[in-house]
Amino acid sequence: MKAFSPRHLNRVRWSSRVTWGCSNGAGFPLIQIVEVAIANPMALPFVSKLIPRGPGNPMEQPKDAKGTGTESGIQPQYGVPYGVTLNPFLSPFGLPCKQPAWGYISALDLKTNEVVWKKRIGTPQDSMPFPMPVPVPFNMGMPMLGGPISTAGNVLFIAATADNYLRAYNMSNGEKLWQGRLPAGGQATPMTYEVNGKQYVVISAGGHGSFGTKMGDYIVAYALPDDVK
């Protein structure tokens, strides 16, 4: 399949690429000393189809509209002859038709273009597509919205996954060092800052409607140990 094959009016287009960005959507940190890039690629197919203009699909944006569209259903594409439906490729049970894993955290050697390490990331513990709660947070590899950050101490922090966790990894080998439970979905990119010699990592935990994670209005900060920078 071509990277940018056109959508069609009379049939659905299937794309193996998630439409909200793979590695480029969330950005990724670089370890300049060893020339390694950290990314969180996804493998979640999407389907799309052109929709002719008509009731509920106007050519121009209504004057009373608040925003330009939605994340699923008909994307308006105002000013052109067609809207477009855009949705994950799901089964009637609401689960992706592709087998897991759907999300990874990985390191890429920028000199050799080889993957240094690659790990599944994320559990189905908190996401809506599963028809009943999954009490065991097994590491399935979930879709993500948000990116990772890195510290000078070779530690990687990422939330992003379709569950309520912030995680820390060893950037050299992908070993998970820690995870903290968030009060709502952390579909965002964390940030780090220093105050009076103490380093902190902060994440916005607001949840996400399409992911089905718990909604909230939280900013959560963690203090790093003095031997971790």
Molecular structure report:
With 229 residues, this protein is an all-beta fold. The protein has one domain (13-45, 89-223): Lipocalin. It has no helices and 15 strands. The chain has strands spanning 13-15, 30-31, 36-39, 46-52, 74-75, 82-88, 104-109, 115-120, 149-150, 155-158, 165-170, 176-181, 191-195, 198-205, 218-223. The strands form four sheets. It has a four-stranded antiparallel beta sheet with strand order 1-4-6-5, with no helix packed on it. Strands 2-3-7-8 form a four-stranded antiparallel beta sheet, with no helix packed on it. The chain has a four-stranded antiparallel beta sheet with strand order 9-10-11-12, with no helix packed on it. It is globular, with a radius of gyration of 20 Å. The protein starts with 12 loop residues before the first strand and ends in a 6-residue tail after the last strand. The mean pLDDT is 80. GO terms for molecular function: quinoprotein glucose dehydrogenase activity. Keywords: Oxidoreductase. Its EC number is 1.1.5.2. It comes from Escherichia coli.
How far apart, in Å, are the first and last alpha carbons?
Answer: 44 Å
Taken from the alpha-carbon principal axes, the silhouette is globular
Order of helices and strands: EEEEEEEEEEEEEEE
Strand order of the largest sheet: 1-4-6-5
Mean pLDDT, nearest integer? Answer: 80
The value of Rg in angstroms is 20 Å
Pfam families: PQQ (PF01011)
Keywords: Oxidoreductase
EC number: 1.1.5.2
Organism: Escherichia coli
